[in-house]
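Read as chain and fold; for instance:
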Amino acid sequence: MKEESIDSFPCIVTDTSFIASYVLNGFTDDEFPDCVKDIEYVLNNNGQFYVPPLFWYEIENVLLYKTRAFKSNVSGKKKTILSVSDAMDIMYDLSQLPFYTDCQPDTQIRQRIFSIAKEFNLSYYDASYLELSRRYNIPLKTYDEDLLRAVKKS
């Protein structure tokens, strides 16, 4: 499916990079704030975000990672981007959004994911988002460069 505007689609497949940019907007300065428009469009038009089951592991791993201390390039001191409390609040907020978590894929779907991964040189994980987008014929939103290339070629 070609990348397209969601103006006529109140539903989108969204990967972790897209939702992470939305929920971390304001916590970090390296996120992409333009996702807010698309997220709000879906919310304001009673749409849904379609995700494969692995999305929940990926997004919560992102939140976990952001709670871990790292050395600041500016001060050299250890700091975190999110407190554990902030991460828990974000997890709760995510649970209130209209996500449709696709079923556990059967053999046929897993084979399609595998074929897509091979065709576009994607990870199996990333290919699962593209397969979901194709299967439901709805746009895929991502900031992953490899996945964006595959979407444009589809």
User: Anything to note?
Assistant: The mean pLDDT is 89. Residues 64 and 129 are 22 Å apart (CA to CA).
